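=== Structure Prediction Worksheet ===
Name of assembly: unnamed complex
Input type: mixed (protein and possibly other molecules)
Chain count: two
Listed entries:
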Amino acid sequence: MVLMTSFAFADAVLINGAGATFPYPIYSKWFDEYGKANPGTQFNYQSIGSGGGIKQILAKTVAFGATDKPMSDEDLVKNGLFQFPAVMGGILPVVNLPGVQPGTMKLDADVLSDIFLGKITKWSDPRIAALNPGLKIPNWPVTVVHRSDGSGTTYVWTSYLALKSAEWKSKVGANTDVKWPVGQGGKGNDGVAAVVKQTPGSIGYVEYVFAHANKLTHTQLKDHDGQFIQPDFETFQNAAARATFKAPGYSSSLLDQPGKAWPVTSPTYILVYKKQTNADGAAVLAFFDWAFKNGDAAARQLDYIPLPPSAEAAVRAGWAANISLNGKPVYISK
Amino acid sequence: MTALPAKTGGMTRTRPKGASFDPLFLLVCGTAATLLLSALAGIVGSLLIGGWPALSHFKLDFFTSSDWDPVQDIYGGAGPIVGTLITAVLSLALALPIAFGVAVFLVEFCPPVLRRPIGIAVELLAGVPSIVYGMWGLFIFAPLFRDLVEMPLISSAPAGSLQEKIFSGIPNGSGILAASIILSVMILPYIAATLRELFLTVPAKVRESAYGVGCTTMEVIWSVTLPYVRRSAIGAVMLGLGRALGETMAVTFIIGNSHAFPKGLFDGGSTIASTIANEFAEASSDMHTSALIALGFVLFVITFAVLAIARALLGAPKHG
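=== Predicted Assembly ===
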């Protein structure tokens, strides 16, 4: 028995992946659990950023790439890549205002984009007061805190602002890094959290897990239906439920969805080649198949949102139809 | 020596054993030197080639504009270039007096028992990894700096005064001045150690003669030691400057990371190194990557110029 186990380890297949930093914690947790159940496969994931993940998969140095910003349909076709969502996350505005408790301040997209455009410079602004009758807000100058490094979080955040504000769309736009009209940059979610913590009167945006871990003061946001809602598991899941993952890109914007859905929610994606040249592709799909089946609890524990069952079914069907090795499908749906 | 014949008759000259290895030795050493030089040339070349699309597309704008817009694919590097120069010069201005004091104390005043511990402490400062300075700067230094320096200076400034202009910015402990202070701590040990070595090269009899004619310690330092090592000391300072120019992680954590020209000492800024560290992994287009590589090329040129000046001064005759 011992001999067989050690033999299996010696024979373990090593699968390399690289890309987005945002899903790194959940991927490593899944790798760990999967590795215990399947000692024959080991994963090595380098969280070098979405841009790096795309470069690595294009250079064919990894079996899969991971990115927060979905690749466009044309690029997918041009490079023969298949893209699918793996897990989702929520992004929230956080503020540092003495006397304002977490979850009490209400903001909407108009006010948010004007704050990030540098048009609202004082917390005593009448538009903020109008959204927050009865809330005592100190009259501090507004300091905007953004990511200094290129990041998928910034892509989702600026996409939301661009979706809701024509002025943001024309003046700044949406990308992993933009020309910020005002504010200071912090490196990584940690950096933004630290700068917000240290700057009275500041407002920034972080992934849910970092707001949680750093005990930052999050705000409510006005959803698609005009209701103010809290960022929590329920509102994230309501957003996730609206996802329609369809061929060819399987990307779906979850921004500003109806039905009590947190307006800044986003999937993160995996890229694999449609025409596989070795058994690595099958191992990657087997892993994500396992993760969809068994990984939900771990995802929730780390403040990620698992894909809804309908989305998982769509992705599995996509695998079966698109990914092949020597002309034979790599994944056969059960 | 007696083995060598005085007259060159028909006798064969005996050569020492192993002399035939000399050409091989020369080849090995020569290869090592050439390898290093070609690596250097390769780096310069690839930086130039990689940065060329951005340099040729934006031309002079790359150096004069601070418009850095990854969405529109427009890149002007003036913000990071100016930020690099400002933080390097400021940190040098802060570190130099202290480094000078440390070096003079160690050479002139320090009781021999303390000389080693202080020397080691200074060298330990040089061994602290850059990222540690960055984390310490952001989480420990910045809040203290905000409460003890920034807030008092900002709130005490009369409206419209010069003080208000110089110390404008976001009072949160990070920014140009905070980054310069962290940098100065990082370059201090280099300058202090080099200055101390230089001071020790002043012949004892010169200094003692000065003491002999009744000079005070301060007079000896100003009129004998310093003039004696003047040129080399400038070289030592330039070495510190070279390190300040290229420092990356510590600066990235605390400089505030905004691409525009800083408006005041407390305002956020960026340096070339911090910009590259922040954006390279997620550069969104080929032009973005190229602009970052071009910035790297600019930094290389600046650093190379500084180090070349330092070498020229260090190598010059001591009695400058």
